[in-house]
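Write out the bound-state structure for calcium ion.
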Amino acid sequence: MPGTSDQTNAPHRFGRAEHDIVALGIATAAIILFVSTGSTVLPQAIRGLAGVGLGPEKLAVNALLLNIALIIFGWRRYRQLALEVVERRRAEEQEQRLAQTDPLTGCLNRRSIGPATDALITQSAVRGEVVALLMIDLDHFKQINDYNGHSAGDAVLEGCARRIELLLPDGAILARLGGDEFAAATAFDPRRAEAVDGIATAILEAIAKPFTTNGITLETGGSIGIARSDAHPDCGEYSADRVSGHTLMHMADIAMYHAKKRGRGRYFWFEASMESELRFRGKLEAGLRNGIPRGEFVPYYEQQIDLQTGELTGFEMLARWNSPELGLVNPTIFIPIAEEIGLISELSECLIRQALEDARRWDPRLTLAVNISPLQLRDQWFAQKLLKLLVEANFPPHRLEIEITESCLHDNMGMVRSLIASLKNQGIRVSIDDFGIGYSSLAQLRTLPFDRIKIDRSFVSNLANNRNSAAIVQAVTQLGRDLGLPITAEGVETREVLHKLLEYGDIKGQGYFYGRPQPAAETHRQLGQLDLLRPENGHEMPPAMPAAPTEESRRANGL
Ligand code: C2E
Ligand code: CA
Ligand code: CA
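---
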């Protein structure tokens, strides 16, 4: 740390300065003495040699010699000190350079990019130019580090720095902010912002090209956020004449985050609306963190129906956030955030715990289906955690069904396979959810021991008026028959769809046609009316399973 080295150097420097003064004092005194003794001794010596006088006194000669020795000593000391000063200055410059640059890439570092951008803004203003700051973040860099080691990661970072440098105009600055983040600042003519667009596009193309290191080829990509120092007219509070380097970095960072959200490999200029989006996201994150312990996340239940008989067979639990600030929030909003901020396990466990408690009071023939995030499948303790919840709730595993979305089969098949096996060993059933949109191969479907296929609602809901969807639904139901896997169709919204589905054979269905997902209390009330609640002693079974759906669906089924 520069602060520390400054402190350690301070006494040392002070000591040198003292020596400097002593050496200078000695040399000056010696010269004065030399002038005074020399001026008497030398003429006497010359006269003595010429035989005109007695020559100098011995004492005076000794004094003169001592004097000359002192001058030589002083001069040498002076030379030595001068060399030391040069050396010290060089070391200080080196120290300063290290404090300002990133040791791996030789670019500026996070600390120095702000002041360097400030300087660039001031210089460019003289020429009527403004500064664009590009925040460049590499995509999936962590995977390169994890799978190929840190030296491969370092090689990619160095390679990126060199490629970016080549694309920047003269006078531009480049910094590595740490990790896989770079920032570049360049001056441009405010009437020709497309020049900056060109640079951003070229950088994205350059870093997306493969890198080869130690015989392996590595690929990355990037996302860029750009902010300009004259700020855009619609940049709200940033629309001051000129913003500082520090604020520019903040704005570019927001735009970069936006680019990442929009699907990476692209760039965005900062706009004020992005910041409000980010603030909203921050609010959601904080709400999520605080809402879990406060019990704001609750299970809702959607009926699952045997389409042929119209019987209620169970419920799918769908998470809802009862936020005091935002009202009832859907899982499509908060589940991805919970995944990103590492709260998905905690949230899911809290919901499943409540759902098991609710479902314990239902008729024992009714099943409970829960959705599991792909991230939870990577948790090697997931099966154990689930078993613990089942034991705590005293809930029979065969009544629980886990829904795994098709898309998560693409990464880490080995792990998914062993997880499914251990869930099945416990008696839990496993369905493949959203089937049809994730392009999983038939081979995968055959090798993974699923218990059920759920056809994605995008095919089901427009089954009646889209021939392609109808063909897919038909093909999937046939596939289910061939593999001996029962089928559930999600998104049954209308009677027409129901009738169409009935043509495909023995399948289950769920959707708004049978009712919207409802909270636990309402589900409880509905089951009470249908005489589908477990009797208080918990052992008696109702004689037969009556039909559960709405009046309309009963009529549709001819019941
Ligand atoms: P999903 O598993 O496909 O759940 C079905 C979604 O479709 C639900 O949306 C449901 O309300 C909606 N839906 C049901 N019937 C119909 C219909 O007839 N028409 C239409 N258009 N939509 C219908 P929701 O509740 O917003 O859930 C969205 C997704 O969030 C779920 O999709 C599921 O993937 C995920 N999700 C829900 N709860 C959880 C949870 O506890 N954990 C995890 N990891 N994901 C969850
Ligand atoms: Ca589902
Ligand atoms: Ca689905």
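---
Residues 433-434, 456-457, 490 surround calcium ion (ligand 3) (CB under 6 Å).
Confidence is low (pLDDT under 50) at residues 1-15, 540-559.
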